[in-house]
Amino acid sequence: MTSPDRCNKAFTLNDGGLGTDNEKKLEDSIVHALQSGYRLIDTAQYYGIESVVGRAVRNSGVPRSEITVITKFWSHWHHDPAEALRISLKDLDIEYVDILLMHWPFATTPAPERKHLRKDQSPTFVETWKMMEKLVGPQCRAIGVSNFTQKTLDELLPHCNIVPVVNQVELHAFNPNHQLVPYCVSRGIHVMSWSTMGGEREGEANLIHTHSLFKSIAKRHQCSTGVVSLSWAVQRGVTVIPKSSSKMRIAENIKLVRLTEQEMAQISRASETIMKYRVSDLIKELYVEVDGKETFQGWTLEELGWADKDGKWLT
Hints:
The protein is α/β, with parallel strands linked by helices. It has one domain (about 25-305): NADP-dependent oxidoreductase domain (TIM Barrel, Alpha-Beta Barrel), CATH 3.20.20.100.
């Protein structure tokens, strides 16, 4: 969730979330955030909270026209994104979504089978995108993608009548996407980051909260390490989606700071000087065996564009 006014940073797209297990607490958190100045809400069918998000939007007292609502459809709807949109609109109970995203480039067969498809099997993400283009109108103001790389975008863009307005990707100091961000900018695609605070690594402390680099920068700016990470991304021209159910952190995260060039460079080098990792690699349920080989939902990391055949990171 982001705020263009309180963060003193608004981005123009090429067409001109919060989380908790308790629905009431989640609704209250979103209402509080909207009333505090946040104006973008990111959700997805996969999260199972669209009805709560819609209720919060309606109960916030903030005009719907001032709120950007983004939702995403999962892989079993690649064959019918129109039906996915219909279901999201019904669950959200709002007249339109501002941006509809393809959650991942990989697809499965429809429910209930949901068999993982290989990259060249239909529907390909290009076929799904062509169906999405037909949805742009009063109920779906814009369309975009999520978790796409230079490789998958290179394969998609030659077939586009409508260029994705957004590419929503994992982005933080340990997965900085130094090549992907300028690639998207050069093609008029706005980058939006998820897990900007580094995510949780099982059994290990979150280094953005605990490492001396981030703690020393935070001390100089009298803010939290989380705000340092969010500020770093925004100064790169990236929209961030901070996730918190704490009203104190919701209020804090909206107050970004101006980092120096040296501080920006130090954080940007953290994947080389400290460590690098992808939160996505830690989501074990996304890894499945297909044809006797471990895959990421049926695809290799090379097919996703995350790495070359030797395992070197490409984004």
